[in-house]
Amino acid sequence: MLAALGSLAPELLMAQTNQSDRAARDWLAKAEIAPAFVAPRSKAAWESKRKEVRARLWELLGKLPPR
Asked: Are 30 and 37 contacting, i.e. CB atoms less than 8 angstroms apart?
């Protein structure tokens, strides 16, 4: 019976969206695109650039929720 209901009226079984979902989509649509990542060609080049890459990654991730 549930399968029949799902095929006849799938919108009844779907989760409802709320205002926070819309706000998240709006924020994402306006978000800046992350710059392309170009991997350093050698281990020495990576080690000299690693701190900069890590700092930029945390900046792009933004504030994360507490664990």
From this structure: no
Distance (Å, rounded) from C-alpha 42 to C-alpha 37? 15
| 31-60 confidence digits (pLDDT tens) | 888 778 888 899 999 998 999 989 988 888
Determine contact, residues 37/60, Cβ cutoff 8 Å. no
pTM to 2 decimal places: 0.41
Phi-psi region of 62 (alpha: psi -120 to 50; beta: other; left: phi over 0): left
> In whole angstroms, how far apart are CA 29 and each of 33, 34, 37, 66?
10, 13, 21, 25
